[in-house]
Amino acid sequence: MGADGSGAPVGAVAPKLEYAFTWDAVATPVHNVGTQMVWNVTSIDMHGPDIKGSSVSPAGDWITIMPNGVWYLDVRFSVLLDDGSHAYCHYNGIGDMTPEQIETIQAGGTIPGDAMYFYSTPYFQTDSEKHAWLGRHVFIGCMREFGSGKVIYDVFKVAGGAK
Fold it and tell me: What pLDDT shows up at residue 7?
């Protein structure tokens, strides 16, 4: 066990997270095929201290529903950024909700992010000089609210390193 009691080895470097932006998205389920649930993401508003953008169609979420009920996310979309350039985003993630929470979502209700395990790992590609930092960081998306066709993620970049 490490000196800090965390179980990490002495000298382990824990990541430092910095708020990057929020995504406000609208998404609706289209259909299920076996264990796949396909969602149409109709809009994404991206806003943060150093960035603004809006999604450009098409955008979608392909969710694999595991036998234990866990959702494996596979999301892809492009964003038109505030400098006129585009960024492509792809992320995977895990959503783990109780059967009661799934029922709430299906009935049109919402679930707050702190009541469920729902995280993602967005990665970006862009030619933007202003927003080149998107392609130089790992990000962690934390669900703030899910349901009623809305998805709100707060996205944090893993800070540190030489850049």
Answer: 87
Region of 147 please: left (phi>0), alpha (psi -120 to 50) or beta. left
Token pair of 120 as six digits = 């993602």
pLDDT, tens digit, 9 for 90 and up, residues 71-87: 999 999 999 999 999 99
Structural domain boundaries enclosing 112 = 16-159
Q: In the beta sheet, which residues pair with residue 54?
A: 45, 80
Residue type, 92: N
Tracing tokens 């505030």 back to the chain, one arrives at 82
Please check whether residue 103 is in contact with residue 72, taking contact to mean a CB–CB distance below 8 angstroms. Answer: no
CA distance to 48, 125, 141, 142, 143, per residue, from 113 (Å): 19, 27, 11, 7, 5
pLDDT score at 4: 64
Of residues 155, 151, 145, the one with CA closest to residue 28: 151
State yes or no: pLDDT of 3 exceeds 80. no
How many domains are contained in the chain?
1
d(CA 61, CA 75): 4
Q: Is residue 7 part of a domain?
A: no
First to last CA, the chain: 31
Residue 162 has pLDDT above 70, yes or no: no
Domain assignment of residue 39, yes or no: yes
Sign, CA dihedral 89-153-20-48, equals positive
